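Example record

One chain of 299 residues, shown exactly as stored in the release files.
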Amino acid sequence: MTSARSLTLAAACAACAAALAATSVPASAAGTAGTTGSATPPSRYVALGDSYAAGSGVPDQSAGLCLRSNHNYPSLLAARLRAATTVDVTCGGAKTKHMAEPHVYPVIGKVNDPQLGAVTADTKLVTLTIGGNDLGSTDAGVAGPILTCVALAQVAPWGSPCAWHYKDTLGNRVNDASGRVASTLREIRKRAPQAQIMVVGYPAVLPENEWDCLGKQPITVFDAAFLRDTVKELNRMLAREAKAGGAVYVDTYKPTLGHDICSSDRWIAGIIPTEPSLPVHPTARGQQALADAVAAAIG
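Predicted structure tokens for this chain:
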């Protein structure tokens, strides 16, 4: 007999496919990007990162399996700063290793060149959102463990099956990724000595009060807390490495509080997206929030 939670998970997959098929940007994507402030427009801006930077699922999509949106935060930021040249090589599914290595899928083959190849000596601004995909054994990034928690909640809806399943694994993966983030920052500085480097953290995927998720998403309350704290740990690592590497850390967590997957005003899509986005990824409004946070950090 099929359970209600199984049906919910199946619906999430269908919603994911629908998000990728969408071809128009919802009115909420208009945002408040505006024009440049007092900052001098960068002559060359390079955007590096994973699906949270690529805007995967947000219309309009390009770059094949990289699922790169023309309304992702790098596009919005470039327009706001009036960058003379923008090179966006962000790619859904990218891990820290794909900064220096080709992004290759089994059977399919290469979907993206090493992202660091876009960073040249004349680059003046670099944004980097990376590390989330290192949490999972697949390329689903921050969403991967969350979707695992959804599956585990089918058999243990009131406990903490996900925390029990992962134990210290996710924390260890964050620690393992830190060295690769540090190496990436060193290479960016080597290739572009005059560039301002912005390490962009991950938004508030889950609420500060885990009980706000009760009955709103198909994960247990206790696993919501576990996953929230994992995202915080990832962001702390990124902030440490940014400081050590002479980069600026951009906090996107605080600006998106109250707009998580359990909120009634979501900027991060739920397990079943209600607007074009991949599950547990920033919506068009979420991408606008990320762009605003980076622009504010640049000054």
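Notes: The radius of gyration is 18 Å.
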